[in-house]
Amino acid sequence: MGSAPARVAIQLTVNGRAVELEVEPRRLLVDLLREDLDLTGTKVGCDTSQCGTCTVHLDGHAVKSCTVLAVQADGATVRTVEDLAPDSEQLHPLQAAFVEHHGLQCGFCTPGMLMTALDLLARDPDPSDDEIRDAIQGNYCRCTGYQTIVDSIRNGAAVMRGEPALSWALDGARPGQAAAGQSAHGQPVAGQPAAGQPAAGQCAAGQPAAER
Questions:
Q1: Is residue 110 part of a domain?
Q2: Given phi > 0 = left and psi -120 to 50 = alpha, else beta, which region is 83?
Q3: Using an 8 Å Cβ cutoff, are 15 and 79 in contact?
Q4: What stretches in the chain show pLDDT beneath 50?
Q5: Is the Cα dihedral 155, 160, 161, 162 positive or negative?
Q6: Distance, CA of 166 to CA of 27 (rounded, Å)
Q7: Which domain CATH number covers 55?
Q8: Residue from 11, 135, 26, 132 nearest 78 by CA
Q9: How crowded is the C-beta side of 187, counted as CA atoms within 13 Å?
Q10: Interatomic CA distance for residues 39 and 79, integer angstroms
């Protein structure tokens, strides 16, 4: 039987902490993070560099860590999703926006989405929706349909620029969308009840009105 592959000593900085390890030359960065450093926020979704769930920052740029060998990160600085909110009581503005604007359901893709979005916002603090969609095209989400992720990134970016956070309207309308029973300009729509008003044939509690 052949001998085990020689191990290589590497040094890198992970989330601000200096790390020294010995790794096999074939070891992937994602495996080093998850198995050697117990940073399991970075996910493995496909093993073919398609889904983006393993995205981290390498020297300030978003990379899919399943495509990077650990030895290639020797001397580099790595940032993972765990570094966004070291204090569990205080979320990063982008994380808070994903919660507020329903940018996640199962949450498996969320770490990669966050790291990809942060890479975009470092380059463009005020991206358009089209630019957001272009940035996350390498990240798969099987739950949300993406629109709420775009909403979350847009609103998280606004908070990071120092603008006030937007909340979902109480009537269920998305920020920037008309409420039920109103046109885009906020005027009542003929034949439709205004927000908070009972529909035809219903009482204020939403129950069918008694026949008259």
A1: yes
A2: alpha
A3: yes
A4: 169-196, 198-206, 208-212
A5: positive
A6: 43
A7: 3.10.20.30
A8: 11
A9: 3
A10: 10
Q: What is the pLDDT of residue 210?
A: 47
Both tokens of residue 31?
A: 């495996």
pLDDT of residue 89: 83
Domain boundary among 83, 99, 123: 83
- Residue reference for tokens 């998280």: 156
The answer for residues whose C-beta is within 8 angstroms of residue 128's C-beta and 6 or more apart is none
Name the token pair of 106: 């199962």
In a domain, 31, yes or no: yes
- Is residue 166 in some structural domain? yes
**What integer pLDDT is reported at residue 183 of this predicted model?**
40
Tell me the β-bridge partners of 208.
202
127: nearest Cα among 153, 95, 94: 153
Residues 16 and 77 in one domain: yes
The predicted pLDDT at position 204 comes to 45
pTM of the model: 0.77
Domain identity same for 21 and 32: yes
- As a whole number of angstroms, the distance between CA 127 and CA 44 comes to 28
Q: Are residues 166 and 101 in the same domain?
A: yes
